[in-house]
Write a structure and sequence with these properties.
Layout (H helix, E strand, L loop, with lengths): L9 E8 L8 E3 L13 E8 L5 E8 L10 E5 L8 H6 L4 E3 L10 E3 L9 E5 L9 E2 L7 E2 H18 L8 E7 L2 H16 L8 E9 L3 H14 L5 H11 L11 H12 L4 H7 L2 H7 L18 E2 L6 H7 L4 E8 L7 H9 L4 E2 L4 E5 L2 E11 L9
Parallel strand pairs: 1-17, 5-8, 5-11, 10-13, 11-12, 12-14
Antiparallel strand pairs: 1-14, 2-3, 3-4, 4-8, 4-9, 6-7, 15-17, 16-17
InterPro entries: AB_hydrolase_fold, Peptidase_S10
Pfam families: Peptidase_S10 (PF00450)
Protein name: Serine carboxypeptidase-like 18
Length: 387
């Protein structure tokens, strides 16, 4: 697979560790905006989960363009919560890219030469309920949280593999970026528990992938200030003043601490795509994707009006527990990501207390520095996975 980073440094952390009825999925051969027949197999559909299958999860599945019969299956989340799988499909690792310079009714689509579907079977999923084209048949079903996200996705995976038995023996990986780091760890643990208990259908879980993941909410937010200072986004005098006046805590700010509040306001003022919406709300696009009529009045790439509750603020223990399992893991992050600073990612990975097997060094793509390998880690002694 070709990996390329043209304008940002990518830091790699590698952990090597010992009342609708559900309709069949639809094969999509043409998409508005793309000229010709799609050169890959695309499938869309809904899978019902939850009580009475009232929650209908929309997803896209792209077969590997290399050897789908043996290539791994990767379920990919997008953060938010509330951002559609189309975000990754068009702007991260999917088989198509969207041309931002377009004229006409909808954006033009072109092949992504670096899409992960060249070597992976990819499932893009609109989670949690209310995201993208996923919907609930009842109003109560729209209320969700991190725990339900995990339960619904586990049910989704079981049903998806029942519907796609030919992929049952393929290695399964689960991954995602940003906010989805808070649910990926708990989900992987649940899938792994089912795997070692030999629950049917057997989900052949082999590992997980995280992209700038939210894992420890407090440190993710608190380290933004240090990151902003190191990136010269705020001056040294402001950073030193914030450390002193806020006592190093930039999350739980006392409103009566006027000096800290003033510093934080100065910090906040110092920094800080509608394309997919246009495309996905086009009537011809909805028909091509076999979107159920009447289920979504308007598609939003990131739905910020979800009835969603974050009930897991720190999931480091899940990732620590997964180091006891016979799973592989890849964690990568950008040095220009302000939402989840790489400093926070380094912090929780180092807290796993694993043995360091490689040093900080550059890695290259086509003779150019594409990023740096930070930590290659492995547990040397046998560990016991805790159910």
């Amino acid at each position: 697979m070709n990996w390329r980073c043209s304008c940002v440094m990518v830091i790699i952390f590698v952990l090597l560790l010992l009342p609708f009825l559900a309709s069949p999925a639809s094969i999509i051969k043409n998409l508005p905006g793309y000229n010709g027949v799609l050169p890959f197999k695309l499938e869309t559909g809904y899978i019902g989960v939850g009580e009475g299958e009232e929650v209908q999860i929309f997803h896209l599945f792209v077969e590997s363009q290399r050897n789908p019969n043996i290539d791994p299956v990767l379920l990919w989340f997008v953060g938010g919560p509330g951002c559609s799988g189309f975000s990754a499909f068009f702007f991260e690792n999917g088989p198509l890219r969207m041309d931002s310079n377009y004229s006409g009714d909808i954006p033009k689509l072109e092949l992504n030469p670096y899409g992960w579907t060249q070597r992976l079977n990819m499932i893009y999923i609109d989670m949690p309920v209310g995201t993208g084209f996923s919907y609930s048949e009842t109003q109560q079903g729209y209320y969700s949280n991190d725990t339900q996200w995990v339960e619904h996705t586990y049910s989704f995976l079981q049903k998806w593999f029942i519907d796609h038995p030919k992929f049952g023996s393929n290695p399964l990986y689960i991954g995602g970026g940003s906010y989805s780091g808070l649910v990926t760890g708990p989900l992987v643990q649940k899938v792994y528990e089912g795997y070692i208990a030999r629950h049917k259908p057997l989900l052949n879980i082999k590992g997980y992938v995280l992209a700038s993941p939210a894992v420890d909410t407090y440190h993710d937010n608190n380290m933004k200030v240090l990151y902003a200072y190191q990136m010269s986004l705020i001056p040294e005098y402001l950073y030193e003043s914030m450390k002193e006046n806020c006592n190093g805590d930039f999350v739980n700010i006392d409103p009566e601490n006027t000096k800290c509040v003033s510093d934080y306001e100065a910090y906040s003022e110092s920094y800080y795509h509608i394309l997919v919406n246009t495309w996905a709300n086009d009537e011809n696009v909805r028909k091509a994707l076999h979107i159920r009529e009447g289920t979504k009045e308007e598609f939003m790439r990131c739905n910020k009006t979800l009835a969603y509750t974050t009930d897991r603020l720190n999931v480091v223990e899940y990732y620590r527990n997964l180091t006891y399992a016979n799973l592989e893991a890849l964690v990568y992050t950008s040095d220009l990501d302000m939402a989840i600073p790489h400093l926070s990612t380094q912090h929780w990975i180092k807290s796993l207390n694993m043995s360091l097997h490689d040093k900080w060094r550059a890695w290259f793509v086509d003779g150019q520095v594409a990023g740096v390998l930070d930590m290659l880690l492995r547990h040397l002694s046998p560990r016991k996975f805790i159910k």
